[in-house]
């Protein structure tokens, strides 16, 4: 059964103390892609095991958030929604946001949760925080179907800019993985992280999902560049822009034309992308730096 | 089976840990802030100490070498046993070779696909079914999907769980879980296999099956590194071995010699004598047990205890640091690793408060249920959650009661006392006279 063993060229691993900047072994990550697939599959599978409603949760949660936001921010407080019906406006922001929130929450706990595995077996460690970021995409996909149904309900026709939606999801993945790997590594050393993250996520959501960028611009003036440092603002605004830009001027609600500008908010996109790249690099760098001691202190 | 091709080459390998690092559960920002003043004081003291030349510059205060200056060549097809006391560095060596933790210095070269088995059931998830876990655990151990598919039948058969494949593993009995986990692991076919102590699980029959499977693996031309406290298994599986003591290789050669040396050295701690530093896992430690006396039923130090006679242990210890939360545990085991029982202060007393610099005698009295024979005691000392000392392998001799006694020796590891009564019962089994 192992007649081939002697003829095959042997792979050679060199084990040495690592020094300085450590690069990610992308080839090795590629070799372990099957395991990554299994880990993601496990996360998805376990999430809804022994739940009554199963994957319906992926739809129920944003649906409830949407209802509350619409009642509270549109009916009671009369916030701007760029002329869009509240449900559409909020759900379009909530889906990418919820993806991000659940990714970083799960990712920040991932190293500690998988401690038994980390101390017993070798595989590229970066896969651990990456797993929840990939698994949360499944929830996003399920919830996205609901968004389509809602759009259908309001009689929206798809636009060409919908093809740009994946670009904003890639941005969301980058931001989630960058922040997630940083928090995961930090949580190994300081368990404060698990108290901070839910709180952080909540504040961050209010900064991101509630108002359209047009309202922020009006209110903040030049300070909006500080606001634009939030990469999720670019993702949320970008998703809404890609979904609804072709509806500009259409009256989805009687007497209220949609005011989503057809031109993209470049300042927001450029800053958001730049910050995402920095977050990604910093997150991976910090993670790799902490990596050598994970097994010893986790 | 050994060839002249090198499978593993290790040169000058070492691993330094910070004291407490291995056992510290976790920190919070507040802890870090709270230790800041102490840290500042320490570093200035360390600087002064370093200036006066009081310390080995390689080993700053508060650190120790779990592994040091390891040179090792393992050829293809070698089956190498690694033996040594707890804390001698065996697991650290395996973890470095399995790339789980990094060495502090030195270098190792590994030629071939490596698979490590440091625990049975790594990556098992209780919510998933047996079938799903076979795939998951297989992938985690490094098997490809098609490889698992190919071996699926064999794995299921080896584990004997065919009827429960689609049941969540959390509903399995403990034994079934272990069998399934081992079955997956046993079908791993790396060129180099690293195994730590996995045979210490499961019932005797399953252990036999595992040793058999391991022999197949070893006989198949694979390179195997094997760590176990079970000397019979080590002797049965390995052809050569190394003995680690306090992080260094102190003996290497044919496995029989290495095991013999290990056993000879392990008996060097005797009751009633001072325990030399090398028998402590950490030295110096916060609370050092430096002598253990075995007491007979009258409370006098004795060389052995009699079967079924109550006896005592007196642990003489020196506290180096004042702490209110010391605990001491003694575990009794047979030579082959089977744990017979555990006694500990935490079961009966509150935590022990001891003053730095004080010497204390801690006495335990217990019923003797052991059958005659040679046993070993492992003494574990903890301060809070952190293990501070560990002395392994203090022998305890239980002598049979001889000459005209009324307590014949019964078969088994422990002597069970029982009372019996005999009554007449009716056909249903109910005792007669009860309505």
What is the strand content of chain A? under 5%
H/E element order of chain A: EHHHHHHHHHHHEEH
- Which regions of chain A are unreliable across 5 or more consecutive residues at pLDDT < 50? 1-7
**Low-confidence segments of chain B:** 50-54
What's the level 1 CATH class of the largest domain in chain B? Answer: Alpha Beta
Look up the CATH topology of the largest domain in chain B. Rossmann fold
Detailed description of the structure:
The complex is a heterodimer of chains A (298) and B (435). Chain A has 298 residues and is mainly α. Chain A has one domain (26-297). In chain A, 67% of the residues lie in helices and 3% in strands. Chain A contains twelve helices and three strands. Chain A has helices at residues 26-31, 33-47, 57-76, 86-113, 115-118, 127-153, 165-189, 193-208, 213-220, 224-227, 231-244, 266-297, and strands spanning 12-15, 251-253, 256-257. In chain A, strands 2-3 form a two-stranded antiparallel ribbon. The two termini of chain A are 39 Å apart. By secondary structure, chain B is an alpha/beta fold. Chain B is built from nine helices and 18 strands. The model of chain B is unreliable at 50-54 (pLDDT under 50). The interface between A and B is large, with 39 and 53 residues. Strand 1 (12-15) of chain A pairs antiparallel with strand 4 (105-111) of chain B, so a sheet runs across the interface.
